[in-house]
TrEMBL record:
The chain crosses the membrane at residues 20-48, 69-95, 124-146, 158-181, 193-223. This is Uncharacterized protein. Keywords: Membrane, Transmembrane, Transmembrane helix. It comes from the Bacteria.
Length: 245
């Protein structure tokens, strides 16, 4: 399974993930620029230590001000909609490109953004369904359980949420977007899914470097899921169609 994943990375998967990572980074910079300018700071403050915390604190104080409340709510609403649409475009392009990889089609920037257009609406719909409904239910359940049984540190909560997301939400989201079979997928492949999800969850509680590694691992987790699904259904012969080094 992991050998097939490596083959998929070598034959276009790594390239598709890199396009997504660079695009997401540019989007994040643009978001920080907008938030910084709105909060009254300078562009140089973006790279200052604790700049994001300062921006957040300023926005909260602005929201508490009657004069700026409406403007801040409007801005946050616009940014939320923009974020969802951006997620649909970038994530749709990523997962669609990963489908091309496991089905033996070449990857390019043009094909990536063509997939973005083809999968954007499906991605937005399923993202809202799984993350905003199922995800919030899982988050609430974890909070309730550990608040009732025993207090739990925030890092442990982050670990559990990340683990459950990897075990349940991400596989369902990925397979739904590309239209692959979902029934029985998690239970039949719980071993490799658990190993990968555990790695993501462990890095998620490590500050800074761990967050970067988590993002990279999460990016390629979608490919890992599609590799498993494709091999299970015998719809693609990796050793025949991929170049084996």
């Amino acid at each position: 399974m992991f050998r097939s994943f490596q083959l998929a990375l070598n034959n276009g998967g790594a390239k598709a993930g890199l396009i997504y990572i660079v695009s997401s980074g540019l989007l994040l910079v643009m978001f920080l620029v907008i938030m910084t300018l709105f909060s009254g700071g300078s562009l140089l403050s973006i790279v200052a230590p604790g700049s994001l915390d300062s921006i957040t604190e300023h926005l909260i104080s602005q929201m508490l001000s009657k004069e700026s409340f409406g403007l801040v709510i409007t801005l946050l609403g616009a940014l939320f909609v923009f974020g969802i649409i951006s997620c649909g475009i970038l994530l749709g392009g990523l997962i669609g490109s990963f489908r091309d990889v496991v089905e033996g089609r070449p990857i390019s920037i043009a094909s990536y953004f063509n997939n973005s257009l083809n999968y954007a609406l499906r991605t937005i719909g399923y993202f809202c369904l799984y993350f905003f409904i199922l995800g919030l239910m899982i988050f609430a359940l974890i909070r309730i359980i550990f608040l009732v049984i025993t207090p739990i540190e925030i890092n442990n909560q982050t670990f559990l949420i990340s683990l459950f997301t990897g075990l349940v939400i991400t596989p369902l989201l990925t397979l739904s977007i590309v239209g692959f079979k979902k029934r029985g997928f998690i239970t039949q492949n719980i071993g490799p899914i658990f190993i990968y999800s555990l790695a993501v969850a462990i890095f998620s509680i490590i500050p800074v470097i761990g967050q970067i590694v988590t993002f990279i691992l999460q990016t390629y987790y979608y490919l890992f899921i599609l590799v498993i699904s494709t091999k299970n259904n015998n719809t693609f012969n990796f050793t025949k169609n991929f170049t084996v080094e």
